[in-house]
Amino acid sequence: MLVSARPLRGPLLVITTACVIGIAGCAGGDPSPAAAPSAAAPSAAAASPAVSAPAVTVADPWVKTAESGMTAAFGTFSTTGSTPVTVLSAQTSASSRTELHEVVVGDDGAMTMRPKGDGFVIEPGAPHVLAPGGDHIMIMDLASPIRPGDQIDVTLSLSDGSTTRFSALAKETSGGEENYDDGAGSMHMSGGQGG
Amino acid sequence: MSALGPSLRRRALLLGGAAAVVGGGTAAALAVRDGDPEVRPVAVAPVGAETVPFHGVHQPGIDTLPAQAHAVFLGLDLNPGSGPAEVGRLMRLLSDDAARLMSGRAPLAAEDQELAVLPSRLTVTFGFGAGLFDAIGRAGDCPAVVRELPAFPADRLDPRWSGGDLLLQVCSDDPVPLAYAVRRLVRDARSMTSVRWVQRGFNPARGPEPAAVTPRNLFGQRDGTANPASGSPELAESVWVRDGPSWFVGGSVLVLRRIRMDLDTWDDFGRVGKEMALARRLDTGAPVTGGGEFDEVDPRVVDERGMPMVAASAHVVRAKARTPAERMLRRGYSYDDGPTPDGAPDAGQLFAAYQADAATAFVPVQGRLAESDVMNLWVTHVGSAAFVIPPGCADGEFVGRALLGT
């Protein structure tokens, strides 16, 4: 089965009352090792480290429940700045192995997930939607089951050297019919109701 | 005279009026049909986009008045073996769903924006039954009256409509977003719970009468005349828990009774008798002893023969709060699950009463009614459940978190 290729509807879901989770402390009062070697925005960080807003905010974050193996986290990323920011990598409290993935249409028409090594570029004014059937944060080698209502902490490392942390709520869904754990690592998608 | 026909002209008035009050939400446009002296003003308001905040000191769906037109009450049972961790996950999920749905958004992981975008004052209210307290190891914290209401002489309770570990009261002025909300909430709850019962109720639609008018029940009575006003000190004192453990302050207690009405015999009883049974007029809700709807029945009034006009067993005489502690907020809904195959009605009221302490409010009042109330000729209590209503929660929190201690 193929996932029908169509534009993501996700951006339409982002409405003004959406709960935006941005942990200011991550970019300010909670200096992380990732922030130290940054050369991208040294002056701003040095001038007011305690009050600088996170470069990326995350709305509506959630993670798909899973008993073991792999799963994925989703949400809508926006940048509050005036220049693009790239999400370089993610870490989660659910496992020690996380990758940024995209979904692409192969030569055979099948949609395939693959790591996106250069990260997700977040353009100002253009929220970047991670959703089943599209870009997502792949969580591998789960340390323990992710059950409905669990919260998974996710930390994004950004191209400006800062980090953004958020909590993703675990929800059961068959949305997208992706099988994030086919055991062989080839990660082909199946089903046709992807979002 | 307009060139448009009467119906078109009316529609133009309605649409124009609705457009004019978008954002206000409380104003009403008046439409009068040409040449129809019987038609009363029709109130029209853009109710679809109205929202009630989920987060706050108190849970929504209680002092959300007038009560929405439609309600679904769900009694869920926790899966065997559930503990504080499971209940915490459940309430975190359901609180997140409720906050989103009430603000007009689909739940996380759902895309049905068009079903969610017009919530029409959707509210989701959670209640904890004794079984939930037991499951989380806090059996001693469940008020005795919630654990077990006294048995009343006239009760004919069916387990099918009774009990439950977790209550979901979901209300909206529109049954479509209501159905969607119930479905998504249950979908998220069902891996941890089973559905014990579901009871659907309704009140008069919004629009036919002004919002402030007391709704009618299926007997035709104005029902709720004695209720405290929204936001009033009387409501606060009657409904919200003020003294108690911190996890309970700001909460309430819900008693939900399924009350079957024998509408066939009521139909045939005669109008004078019906009004004497309640001691209030059917048309206006005013006391049979005179005055307006919000005047009290005066049991001392006698007729020209010197006979009391109000029977000592008239419903409002028996039901009236005799002390401040007996006051409660009645937020009931009619139900109609009939007719049965032989054509009999299967209808009545989902009596939902909120109070700070059911032991001092519902129990003594219902004790009086069960002992003597003319209306007992036509009403039978067939279902019963009581729940602790935890206080509301702040953004980022979930209902019941303080009790769970997580």
Query: Count of helical segments of chain B?
Result: 12
* Oligomeric state of shown chains: heterodimer
Tell me about the biggest sheet of chain B? 5 strands, antiparallel
The largest sheet of chain A, given as strand count, sense and whether it forms a barrel, is: 11 strands, mixed
- What is the average of the pLDDT values of chain A? 73
Question: What's the mean pLDDT score of chain B?
Answer: 90
Distance between termini of chain B? Answer: 68 Å
Note the gap between the termini of chain A.
Answer: 15 Å
GO molecular function (chain B): peroxidase activity
Cofactor (chain B): heme b
Keywords (chain B): Heme, Iron, Metal-binding, Oxidoreductase, Peroxidase, Signal
InterPro entries (chain B): Dimeric_a/b-barrel (IPR011008), Dyp_perox_C (IPR048328), Dyp_perox_N (IPR048327), Dyp_peroxidase (IPR006314), TAT_signal (IPR006311)
Could you walk me through the main structural features you see in this protein, from its secondary elements to its overall organization?
The complex is a heterodimer of chains A (195) and B (406). The model of chain A is unreliable at 1-51 and 181-195 (pLDDT under 50). Chain A has a single domain, classed as Immunoglobulin-like (Sandwich), CATH 2.60.40. Chain A has helices at residues 10-13, 24-27, 42-47, and strands at 20-21, 56-64, 71-79, 85-92, 97-105, 111-115, 120-122, 128-130, 136-140, 151-158, 163-171. By secondary structure, chain A is mainly beta. In chain A, strands 1, 2, 3, 4, 5, 6, 7, 8, 9, 10 and 11 form an eleven-stranded mixed sheet that branches. With 406 residues, chain B is of the alpha+beta class. Chain B has two domains: 1-46, no CATH class; 70-404, no CATH class. Chain B has twelve helices and nine strands. In chain B, strands 5, 6, 7, 8 and 9 form a five-stranded antiparallel sheet that branches. In chain B, strands 2-3-1-4 form a four-stranded antiparallel sheet. In chain B, helix 2 (84-102) packs antiparallel against helix 6. The model of chain B is unreliable at 1-33 (pLDDT under 50). The A-B interface holds A 9, 12-13, 15, 17-19, 60, 62, 64, 74, 147-151, 169, 171-173, 175, 195 and B 88-93, 96, 99, 103-109, 111, 113, 188, 191-192, 395. Chain A: Pfam families: PCuAC. Chain A: It comes from Pseudonocardia xinjiangensis. Chain A: This is Copper chaperone PCu(A)C. Chain A: Residues 171-195 are annotated as: Disordered. Chain B: Its cofactor is heme b. Chain B: Keywords: Heme, Iron, Metal-binding, Oxidoreductase, Peroxidase, Signal.
